[in-house]
Amino acid sequence: MPPRDTPRVRVGRKSTTREPIIQEADAPQVHEAEAAEPEATRREAGVTESSRANRGWWDRNADEYQSEHGTFLGDDRFVWGPEGLDEVEAELLGPAEELKGKDVLELGAGAAQCSRWLAGQGARPVALDISHRQLQHALRIGASFPLVCADAVALPFADASFDLACSAYGALPFVADPRLVLREVHRVLRPGGRLVFSVTHPIRWAFPDEPGPEGLSVSASYFDRTPYVEQDEQGRAVYVEHHRTLGDRVRDVVASGFRLVDLVEPEWPSWNTGEWGGWSPLRGSLIPGTAIFVCVRD
Ligand SMILES: C[S@@+](CC[C@H](N)C(=O)[O-])C[C@H]1O[C@@H](n2cnc3c(N)ncnc32)[C@H](O)[C@@H]1O
Known about the structure:
alpha/beta, Rossmann fold, 7-stranded mixed sheet, 8 helices, binds S-adenosylmethionine, Methyltransf_Superfamily
């Protein structure tokens, strides 16, 4: 069993009240309904196991995710993370007026709210996600551009098909080998194309995934890359997140053929009084929650 303070940096989970049961060695018996909950642990999980687990998890939890976060995300806004940084102000993909006519690939698009915003600027987005149910939510809110259900580690597109690629917490935190994704994105981007992606800020892995004061004390090694896994009673992974240090992420980007031109760590704004799992105004005022990588394919 992992220690009770196993880092939980679950982008998908909605709140600490629905934590998986982590049984202590001497814990009292849990009743049957609780015993069916997944066990949270840290163990290795490969490319195939991670994709299979996350496809299932997002299919099962897409409805709840959209119900919980849909209002904050907005049906046609481009929000980079729980801080609420909006592409309208950030312009990490470039000035909005230059998006018109651009072919843009969104990875791990979820309900494709970001792609809807891009379409509103005159861009031609393609929204890709491994979860069929997430993409059904894209249809529900009115996506009128291609939706592709596929794993980001093997993109079903020809070389040099896109001018831009983007991802707001999609795919990259969940794959066992992010270089597979980055090399694929490099392949499908045209020379000079830009990739911008946000992930959980790596420092968060050293802290418990709690929004309150209990989330402010280091409880694990930042350098421990062992994946966070929730598994069923047979030991099958049902949810996986992978940790890379900041240096690992930079090396992944560069080794995949990109030039890193900016690394944005959005500060928690005073207007945002909401919480998103372990992301909160309290923690956001002290440590970064999101890292956004701005990369160019030369
Ligand atoms: C935290 S959600 C982000 C969705 C959207 N960008 C948003 O901000 O709501 C992560 C998304 O990544 C998708 N995902 C996870 N692993 C993936 C993979 N290997 N390939 C493509 N999408 C993946 C999930 O299905 C999910 O929709």
